[in-house]
Design a protein that fits this description.
This protein has helices at residues 25-33, 41-48, 62-77, 101-108, 125-138, 162-165, 221-243, 260-269, 281-284, 291-301; strands at residues 8-17, 22-24, 52-54, 86-90, 116-119, 144-152, 170-180, 185-192, 200-201, 204-207, 210-213, 218-219, 252-255, 310-317, 321-328. It is α+β, with helices and mostly antiparallel strands and 329 residues long. Strands 1-7-6-4-5 form a five-stranded mixed beta sheet, sandwiched between helices. Strands 8-15-14-13 form a four-stranded mixed beta sheet, sandwiched between helices. The protein is globular. The two termini are 18 Å apart. The mean pLDDT is 97. The chain binds oxa(dethia)-CoA (UT7).
């Protein structure tokens, strides 16, 4: 690597962290029944593909999961925390109103000095954060970045709303992104449409020392589903066009893990067999900004994704936000 501004960025390490407490659908059915909420393993599996999710214990925050995932990513990249000169955390469930969870993660990693900030784009957050880190590295502002998606959605679920509380889980995934002479990230594409703020939101805030509004997740599932399927196809086609690639040249598709039916519909529209789609929603549920880097790390560690493979990452979620990153791993 020469000292000139780099032309490319590459993912050089991945890591992830799931909290140890795993709840199968059967476990959740029992817990919800004790509150008078009726659901079933059959409904959850048939409508979502989810079979289990992980929840943090009291006192564990997004920064704890993020720091653990980051350490694994650093280890797999063969570098130390003080080699990192940029930290971005994508999260909608930060430890505090401020400072950024990224600052807390930086401290937990035992380093200081490099810029650290959060990106808030809900389930598209990791794709947004990766795009920002890619641009900053190519602009010469950093050479090695930790890009992390970390969530504790169990803290913002309404366990009296069976339409949402069965869908989400906690976790974190991280990558080390480095300046490189060879690509790497080939193309990125980001969007938002604020007209749809209300279909997926946590409509609460802190004011005058009190929580105002209703700080639990609200979702119009069908509206989100319809929008998601459309934009996941369009953003995929945009990054393929930008990179001069076709869908059949893809080795792997990693869409945000919200619902197996959304993953299947996206694969169908892109004419990709499900064998090329990394699926973790069955075991993790929807972990929002963490879902893509978690799925990436699972598939790298189990040997499916290898050096040189063509990989598409796709996010979609509250905002309404969406986007994609096409890369050679
Ligand atoms: O991460 C951001 C992106 N988020 C998403 O992509 C989520 C997108 N949306 C979805 O995945 C789906 O819309 C859901 C999984 C949320 C819901 O599936 P659906 O097929 O759209 O179901 P629905 O909301 O139309 O509900 C169908 C029925 C209703 O009963 P009735 O009115 O037909 O009698 C619901 O009350 O299913 C009922 N229902 C449940 N039944 C048992 C809703 N939740 C449950 C439940 N258990 N947990």
């Amino acid at each position: 690597m020469n000292s000139a501004t780099p032309r490319h960025t590459r993912i050089v390490g991945t890591g992830s962290c799931l909290p140890p407490r795993r709840l199968s659908n059967a476990d959740l059915v029992v817990q919800l029944a004790s509150r008078g909420i009726e659901t079933s393993d059959e409904w959850i599996v048939e409508r979502t593909g989810i079979r289990a999710r992980h929840f943090v214990d009291d006192g564990v925050n997004a920064s704890d999961l993020a720091a653990r995932a980051a350490r694994y990513a650093l280890e797999s990249a063969g570098c130390r925390a003080d080699d990192i000169d940029l930290i971005i955390v994508a999260t909608s469930t930060p430890d505090m109103v401020f400072p950024a969870t990224a600052s807390i993660v930086q401290n937990k990693l035992g380093v200081c000095g490099c810029p650290a900030f959060d990106v808030q784009a809900v389930c598209s957050g990791f794709v947004y954060a990766l795009t920002v880190a890619d641009a900053m590295i190519r602009a010469g502002s950093a050479r090695r970045a930790l890009v992390i998606g970390a969530e504790v959605f169990s803290r913002i679920l309404d366990f009296n709303d069976r339409g949402t509380c069965v869908l989400f889980g906690d976790g974190a995934g991280a990558v080390v992104l480095a300046a490189s002479d060879t690509p790497g990230i080939l193309a990125t594409d980001l969007h938002a449409d604020g007209r749809h703020v209300g279909i997926l939101c946590v409509p609460g805030t802190v004011s005058g020392g009190q929580v105002l509004g209703d700080p639990v997740l609200k979702m119009d599932g069908q509206a989100v589903f319809k929008l998601a399927v459309g934009v996941l196809e369009s953003t995929a086609r945009t990054v393929l066009d930008k990179a001069g690639r076709s869908a059949e040249q893809l080795d792997w598709l990693i869409p945000h893990q919200a619902n197996i039916r959304i993953l299947q519909a996206t694969a169908r529209k892109l004419k990709l067999p499900m064998e090329k789609v990394i699926v973790t929603v069955d075991q993790h549920g929807n972990t929002s900004a963490a879902s893509i880097p978690l799925a990436l790390d699972v598939a790298v560690r189990d040997g499916r994704i290898r050096a040189g493979d063509s990989v598409m990452l796709e996010g979609v979620g509250g905002g309404f936000t969406w986007g994609a990153v096409l890369l050679d791993f």
